Amino acid sequence: MLALRRQFLAEGQERARQLLIDLDGQFNAADLAKAVHTWIGTGGLLGYMAISRQAREAEALLLERPLENDRLREALTNLALAFNSPREAYEGPISEIIAQTLAGKRVALVALPKPDSLRMCIALERASGIPVFFEIAEPPRSEALLDCDLIVVHVRPETIGSPWLDAATIPATSPVVFMGSRDHLLALDPAVQGLACEFLMDPWQPDEALVRLSLALSKDRAAAPRAGLPGAVTGKIRVAVVDDDPTVLSLVRTALNNFGMECFMASDGSSALDIVRRQRPHAIVLDINMPQMDGFEVLAAIRREGISIRVLLLTARQQEGDVLRGFALGADDYVVKPFSPMELVARLKRLLSR
After folding, report:
1. Domain count of the fold of the chain
2. Which domain holds residue 246?
3. Do 16 and 131 fall within a single domain?
C-alpha cells in the first residue's frame, strides 16, 4: 500500500505539472479529463481525499461551456499543490463479515484495465484477498485459474466473444462476477449474462466491490433460488417504488416509465406493504431509511408472508453491514444512493429476466 501511494503521488506531481504547462501550449481536454477522472477514484481509494476533491472540481470545470482557462488553471494549480503536500491517507474499517469471507481467497482478475486493477487490488488488500491476474488471451482452463475461488471478468468490446464469456469454456467451479459499463454488460447475450452471479457496474466504489465479491462467494447466494419467487417476467413489468423522499420517487418513476414499466408509489413502509399485498407487482424498489417501519421490516414481512416478488434495496448508507443484513433477510439486489436511474433499471431488468 505504501509503495502504491508513493507511486501515485510521484506520478501525479509530474502529470499535474505537465498539464499546467500544456495549458499554455498544446492543450488536450480529453487527456486532462481522463487524468482527473482517474485521480478522483484512485485518490479517494488511497485515502487522499483532498486530491480526490480537487480533481472532482477540475472535472466539473471541464464539463462547462465555454471552457474557462483561468478557472481551470486555478484548479490544476490546487491539484498540483495537493499532490506536493498530501494529507495523511486514511483507511476506514471494513465489515468483519466481509473480511472473514474474502480473507485468503484467490480472486482471478481477467482483463481488467490498469486503473481498475489498481483499485481492485487495493480493495482486496483491505480484506486480505489475493488478486491473481489473467490476460484475455490466456485460456480459462489453466491450472492457475482452477486454484482461484472467484473469477472477475471485465466486459468491454475487446473481451466480448472471448472464451472468458462463453458458458462452454469458463469453469463452473467458481462463482463469476462481470464488471464494466452498464451498456456493455447489458449488451451481453442473456445466456452469457446468466453466467455471472453478480454485476459490478461503473463507476464502482471499493466498498461496493468488496460487498459484491463477498456476496458472490456466499454459499447462500450460490444456492438454488428461493421457493415462491417469480420466474422470468413476460408482458408489462409492474414495480412498487418506496421512498420517503418525493424527489427520489419522481426520479425513479420517470426512469421506469420511460422503459415501459408500470409504477406503484409509496412513501412509507405500511403503504408499501398494502400495495404489495393488493397489486402483486413483480418487483419492489425499497428504501431502507424510512421512519417508523423501515425497509428491513417491510422486507422481512414480505418474505414472512411468502409473497412472490423480487426486492431491490435502495440505501443511502454506504455500509456493508446494511447491505449484508438485507441479503440475509431475502433481498435480491441493491443500489446505493446517489444512484444512476439507468443502473437501477438495468438491475431490475436483470432480476426479472432470470
Report:
1. 3
2. 238-353
3. no
SS3 for 135? Answer: coil
**Could you tell me which residues are beta bridge partners of residue 242?**
266, 286
- Backbone dihedral angles phi then psi of residue 191, each to the nearest 5 degrees: -65, -35
231 part of a folded domain = no
Q: 201-232: per-residue pLDDT in tens?
A: 887 878 889 999 998 998 544 443 444 445 55
pTM of the complete model: 0.68
Q: Residue 154 has which C-alpha cell?
A: 471485465
Query: In what order do the strands lie in the sheet containing 176-180?
Result: 130-134, 106-110, 150-155, 176-180, 198-201
> Are 249 and 339 part of one and the same domain?
yes
Q: What is the pLDDT of residues 140-188, one digit of tens each?
A: 878 888 889 999 999 999 999 899 998 888 877 889 999 998 889 988 8
Task: Give the torsion sign (CA, 154, 159, 165, 171).
Answer: negative
> Is residue 335 within 8 Å of residue 344, measured between CB atoms?
yes
What grid cell was written down for 47? 485515502
Q: Before 246, cis peptide (omega within 30)? A: no
Q: Based on the domain organization, do 71 and 123 belong to the same domain?
A: no
Q: Grid coordinates standing for 202?
A: 461503473
| Contacting residues for 219 by C-beta, under 8 A, at least 6 apart | none
Maximal C-alpha separation, the chain: 68
Q: Pull the grid cell for residue 344.
A: 437501477
> Crossing angle, helix 206-217 and helix 320-329, to 10 degrees?
30
**91 in any annotated domain:** no
**Residue 274 falls inside a structural domain:** yes
Are 202 and 263 in the same domain? Answer: no
Q: What grid cell was written down for 236?
A: 408489462
Contact criterion met (CB below 8 Å) for 59 and 16: no
